[in-house]
Amino acid sequence: MDRAIEKKTWTTGRILTLSGAVVLTALIIWMFFIRDNRSKLYIQKQQVTIAEVVESKFQEFIPVDGVLLPRNTVYIDAVQGGVVEEVYVEDGALLKKGDPILKLTNANMELSYMDQETRMYDAINNLANTLINIEQLKYTRQKEIIELSYQIDKLKTDFGRKEMFYNDQLISAKEFEDAKRDYEHAMNQLNISLKLKRLDSISGVRQSSQISSSMARMQNNLELLKRNMDNMTVKAPGEGKLSSFNVEIGETKTAGQHLGQIDIPGGFKVRANVDERYISRIFEGQEAEFDMGKKVYQLMIQKIYTNVSNGSFQIDLVFTSDEPENIKRGQTLQLRIRFSGETDAITIRRGGFYQETGGNWIYVLSQDGTSAQKRNIKIGRQNIYSYEVLEGLTPGEKVIVSSYEPFGNKEKLIFN
Questions:
Q1: What are phi and psi of 43, to 5 degrees?
Q2: Strand pairing partners for 273?
Q3: Are residues 267 and 201 in the same domain?
Q4: DSSP H or E stretch at residue 288
């Protein structure tokens, strides 16, 4: 008798099929929803530089190189051009004001000086003769007036006597009229001579003043010519140490050419080049410092040269503390120009990562230290040692600060 066979619900095939479907579904869910899809890169931990985020004192400054120069310097330039005939001192010599340094010769200038001197002396002599003629004319007028006054006195007496004789009819009318005519003529001559004397006096005063001024100018010109000739011997303009002096006999120097300088005793200053990006943040009185011999020396910006050349401008700094011992002119110092005082801040060590990220993100290590992933941050101020972190990191976290160039902008780094 046939018996009905009960059909099984969970057959082996069905179980295997269902299991496969569940596994496939789980795999799909893991691949699209659970699996870390971020781009990864496996690296050796020894290939990177790791630094810790710390909270510490932070001060913003920039490093610059400065050159030591004497605080006060007097430059020596050739006032007149010529050929070096003699050199009296050597570079580094200690000089007093007025000490001769070198002598130049200029044949054309000497001939020109002699010609001008001769012409000026001739002109001065001519003007002096003119002054003498003016004086002579004055005395000639005086002599003429004295002579006329004497003649008038005689004619007046004669005219008075003949007038009495004429009134007594003792002489003729002709004799009386001749005496009267001679007396009046002499009086007219005297009046004319007096007027001429007055005019000569006014003109003489004016001419004498002009001539005296002209002679004074010529004397000054002669003095100037003489000084120009004296300038052929270059002398020390001040007391100090001669430097940057390199002159050889026979060299030709042009007028205005720099010959050297005298460093006046009394301390040093530092001249530094600063990147033009900081020109708006540099001001007189701003502080700076440098280290030497385990001691920090303080300086202050005294002068700013705003002319920008080759992307930088120059500043002069003076010491506000004691100057270091045994420093020399031309020595280079590594300065730190401060932009702010010390403040509490979260900082990370400087590194090559900044060149790739611009300070906008950084790789932060996981707590177990097996990986590192990108995180957005915000960088504020910086100095040669560290960056100030404004957002994105907390003290104690560790970050990769070495260059990111080999990582190809991967989202996550996994350490082997």
A1: -135, 165
A2: 314
A3: no
A4: strand 287-292
Q: Per-residue pLDDT tens for 4-48?
A: 555 555 666 667 777 777 777 666 665 555 554 558 888 998 889
Across 352-381, b (16+ Cβ under 10 Å) vs e yields ebbeebebebbbbbeeeeebbbbeebebeb
Contact 50, 398 (CB under 8 A): yes
Same domain, 224 and 150: yes
User: Residue 154: beta bridge partners?
Assistant: none
Residue 240, domain member (yes or no): no
282-334, pLDDT tens digit by residue? 999 999 999 998 899 999 999 999 899 999 999 999 999 888 888 888 899 99
Cα distance between the two ends of the chain: 72
Which residues have C-beta within 8 Å of that of residue 195, sequence separation ≥ 6? Answer: none
CB–CB of 52/398 below 8 Å? Answer: yes
| Chain centroid, CA 215 distance in Å | 42
Distances (CA, A) of 97 to 74, 80, 169, 219, 257: 11, 19, 96, 27, 20
Full residue range of the structural domain in which residue 363 is found: 40-58+344-415
Enter the DSSP assignment of 260.
E
